[in-house]
Design goal:
- This protein is mainly alpha-helical.
- It folds into 2 domains: 125 residues, Orthogonal Bundle (Peroxidase, domain 1), CATH 1.10.520; 128 residues, Peroxidase, domain 2 (Orthogonal Bundle), CATH 1.10.420.10.
- It contains 14 helices and 4 strands.
- The protein is globular, with a radius of gyration of 22 Å.
- It catalyses: 2 a phenolic donor + H2O2 = 2 a phenolic radical donor + 2 H2O.
Length: 324
């Protein structure tokens, strides 16, 4: 009987611990708030906006590059600034992963903004939150929507090269793969199609679209010929082309108009409009910019709420490139 009571007591302790852990996870998820730094760093939004305005003025493409960094960060163990960590002799992070090596860019912009934030609010604001705000401002500065960014993220003390290699969809992904990979992050097919609209800005390298412009049939012939001018059959792998042939540096719904006209640059782009489940939504976005903007904002906030797994060591980094 005594033994039974001991077992029962232990079971109760375990049960309470589980409940507390779940409550802790819920509390962690709920701590994100647009007002998180209202008292500790009231100048944060102004500093980040000014930094991004300067960066985009120098190079409009930078808005797209920062947006891509945020996406690649959030899809690997949550939005924790892990993509910003440099490799060291004893640490290999996400920068050298296949989807990021020689293509992820904009780190110096985040560094510059972080330095300004640190000068104003020492050891207070995470790199992950700076990246989230910079992403919103980059989109808005290029003519896109703005939104209230939930804040309160912490920076991971580690990164996952394997996670970056396995969690990020590639330029040759099929529609089924895209839906599956976004679904693993808790994002719906609608979220995926709206987030893909990020390709209304930015550029990509010839090596990622060469096969499409030479070998695929569901492509506008004149568009293929135009892109072949800067992407030969061999060589020129790093030559750049804009995703959006109409308005390369304007955040609008032209990306979807291009898909309807079979002018998607990547195979994965055109998969959204290729006789599949997202065709009707692409048509809707192509003719209704307001609907696209609303769904894009909703999906961005949803993606931005992805947090590292419970128990992940975190901190507020003083330097975005290395742990404290």
């Amino acid at each position: 009987m005594v033994a039974a009571r001991v077992v029962s007591g232990r079971a109760l302790v375990v049960a309470i611990a589980v409940v507390l852990a779940l409550l802790g996870s819920a509390a962690e998820a709920q701590q994100l708030s647009p007002n998180f730094y209202s008292r500790t760093c009231p100048s944060l939004a102004t500093i980040v906006r000014a930094g991004m305005a300067s960066a985009v003025q120098r190079e409009p493409r930078m808005g797209a590059s920062i947006l891509r960094l945020f996406f690649h960060d959030c899809f690997v163990n949550g939005c924790d600034g892990s993509i910003l960590l440099d490799d060291t002799p004893t640490f290999t992070g996400e920068k050298s992963a296949g989807p990021n090596a020689n293509s992820a860019r904009g780190f110096e912009v985040i560094d510059a903004i972080k330095a300004q934030v640190e000068a104003s609010c020492k050891a207070t604001v995470s790199c992950a939150d700076i990246l989230a705000l910079a992403t919103r401002d980059g989109v808005n500065l290029l003519g896109g929507p703005t939104w209230s960014v939930p804040l309160g993220r912490k920076d991971s003390r580690t990164a996952s090269q394997s996670g970056a290699n396995s969690n990020l969809p590639g330029p040759g992904s099929s529609l089924a793969t895209l839906i599956s990979m976004f679904g693993r992050q808790g994002l719906s097919a609608r979220d995926m199609t709206a987030l893909s609209g990020a390709h209304t800005i930015g550029r990509t390298q010839c090596q990622f679209f060469r096969n499409r412009i030479y070998n695929e049939r569901n492509i506008n012939a004149s568009f293929a010929a135009l892109r072949q001018q800067t992407c030969p059959l061999s060589g020129g792998d790093s030559n750049l082309a804009a995703f959006d042939v109409q308005t390369a540096d304007a955040f609008d719904n032209a990306y979807y108009q291009n898909l309807v006209a079979q002018r998607g640059l990547l195979h994965s782009d055109q998969e959204l409009f290729n006789g599949g489940s997202q065709d009707s939504l692409v048509r809707q976005y192509s003719s209704n910019a307001a609907r696209f903007n609303a769904d894009f904002v909703s999906a961005m906030v949803k993606m931005g709420n992805l947090l590292p797994p419970s128990g992940t060591p975190t901190e507020v980094r003083l330097n975005c490139r290395k742990v404290n």
